[in-house]
Input
Amino acid sequence: MTSIGEAFITSFGSSLAGLHDRRSGGAMSNSRGIAMAAMGPVGALLGAIGRTGSNYEVADAAQLNVFTKSGTVTAVQGRTVQSTTTQYSSGSVNTNFGGRVTSVTPATAHVQTSSTHLQRFFVREDDGSEFDVELPDVSFGVREGQRLTLVCAGRIGETGAPVALINHDTGRHEIFPRRVDWLYRRPSGFLRFAMLLSLPVALWVIAAFGFNVLSWRPIIYGFVIGGGVLAWRYWAASRLRAAILEKLNAAVATAIRSTKEASRAA
Output
């Protein structure tokens, strides 16, 4: 489906090319093809800004479905996952004016190792059904026989992701920040590159080949527009994250209160 951004840019590009053709006597020129080629990526980029990616991502907090699953822990398993990242730096050779080697810097390799402790909880719900979930680096202990509530969230109509855990026996709970980031789209490195480099270059190409105008102004306009779009995206993402956290905290508070009330009634 063509987005509003793509339709607008395509239409705008056609108008520019048509104006150029009328100025040049209606002849189909290479300028039109180049201008339209520059418009295509810009339109696709603007059209992609508002799209969501995974099944969990939402564009608005109203689209977020939060639900809970509670029960008694029947078993706990743990494992540790290690990942290694290696960064290489090339060496260098310095010479003087006579070509004689003065110093040599050898190539180096920097190795980083990180580990994540994963815990899998097997939980029996009150109706007798069971579920299991694996969570990373839980900050509190859980043992068999304790009552847990798992808070899940995702886009309405899709499967939710586990984002928070409550241990009702110890009174501890945790919302996992990395999993909260799954629920909304943040400005990517590609978007930053496109807004701050590709957009200014595309506008310059459109001005140069679409209007035969050689100026630095399109590049400046591109930086201003791109910077404005990025600032808006970061602002919108921060507001959305705050709204998502508000809903998750409300779900956690409700689950804790409901369990306490059920315990008093029993």
Q: What stands out?
A: The chain is about 45% helix and 30% strand. Helices lie at 4-23, 30-49, 177-180, 189-210, 217-265.
